Amino acid sequence: MRDAILLFLEEYGNIAVFLLILIENLFPPVPSEVILTVGGAMTAATGLTVCGVVAAATAGSVLGAVILYLAGCLLSAEKLERLVSGPLGRVLRFDPEDIRTASGWFAKKGRVAVFLCRLVPIVRSLISIPAGMAGMSMGPFLLLTVSGSLIWNTVLVLLGRAAGDSWEKVEKVCGIYSDLFLMAVGTAVLLFLLIRKRENE
Prior knowledge:
Layout: H1 2-26, H2 32-42, H3 50-74, H4 77-84, H5 87-92, H6 96-117, H7 123-126, H8 128-133, H9 138-163, H10 167-200
């Protein structure tokens, strides 16, 4: 994977950065940490520039986010409520009230969530779907997405440039950060489900 990304970046430069980050937003397992740190390291040894890599990465991030946002618009809260009212909801132990609660929370905290989640691996892509489902206005969504993506991309590109040939160390640190965050989210979700179960008993 890393070698393929490196070759693609060497061959196509900023176009490769744009396409890889777009794919990363639509299919989160493709790691932006690798793409951006490699791109950053290459700015010290090739014709790529920090501004060019950041701009290409941000454009790819925003286009990917808009696609997922539009997908979220197609999956309204009402449709999701009907879905969890059936067998799937019973299997997952969700009910329509959970959807209404989540929608209400997103209506109040959605803008903060969109911005902050753009700074977190994996979640940074997926947050666009509930934004679309909640009917967040496109203007604020784009502003928050561009802002969060610009920060994330700039930090990783600069870290990659500073690390040079040691960019893999940056990737490992980002991997640890990602794992710790996902563990925290998983624990929070588990506690929430346990509390809900006790309340319903």
